[in-house]
Description:
Layout: H1 12-19, H2 23-31, E1 38-39, E2 46-47, H3 50-64, H4 69-76, H5 83-115, H6 138-145, H7 148-157, H8 162-177, H9 186-202, H10 208-220, H11 222-229, H12 235-253
Antiparallel strand pairs: 1-2
Helix pairs in contact: 3-4, 4-6, 8-9, 9-12, 10-11, 10-12
Amino acid sequence: MLLVKELVRLKVQDVAELVGISVRTLHHYDEIGLLTPEKDPDTGYRDYHDEDLTVLQHILFFKTLGFSLQDIKEIIHNPDYDQLEALKLHRKMLIDKRDQLDQMLQTVDETIRAQEGGVPMANDDKFKGFDFSHNPYEAEARERWGDAKVDEAQANAMQMGEDQQEQMNEIYRELAAIRHEDPASKLAQDGIKEWYDFLNHHFATYTPDMFKGLGMMYVQDERFQKNIDQFGDGLAQFMSEAMAVFADRQKSEA
């Protein structure tokens, strides 16, 4: 007789107890589109299946390793996302994190011995194992599954000549002058189209979705926001909203 494995169907409370996280956290993941289980058509309750639990495992792996929820969402919902490849990357990250913790434990032990009257520590030995840099694997993950086009654009930006830089700054200044307008207005959309054309000519080929995603980065990444807002407070937010409208209109007209 052929046995058919019954699909797992867990309610949100069951998943919260299984994983050890709160129901509110699972609701939040659903609300932001990070993990969206099926809804029971009769009750409206969330039903979590095997695949949902697998996705949740990956979310928590990335979260434990210091990735933001927005970065995790971009990674796991990318069409090129490979779960097995991600697990191998997680394993490498965890091994390196374990090595760092082992080094910090060694530093603590040596510090204890020194303070108990042992051999004094050299100054550089006191800080072995500490690492306050950004997650070294985040760039790799973003390149594989996230905003690779943003990285490509940043690389191209480093090679810009003075004329291109001035042209870009002029567009920023023009948009800053109208940043208090409705992002969906003709004035705003004409200005953002100039930005769209400039990016596609000098940086990378952007689909409407990529352009919209780039606009989201303007307000989600402090480096982008700070650089753009130097032309006018609130410019990054205005551009992000105008870019989203432009992209949606491009898609609807296609």
